[in-house]
Amino acid sequence: MKFLIINGPNLNFLGIREPEIYGNNTYRTLKRTVARHAKTRGVKVKFFQSNHEGALVDAIQRAYFKKFDGIVINPAAYTHTSVALADALKAVKIPAAEVHISNVSAREEFRKISYVRSVCVSTVTGEGFNGYLHALNDLIEYARNGKLPQNNEKTACQENKR
Question: For this structure, is 22 an active site residue?
Answer without folding.
Answer: yes
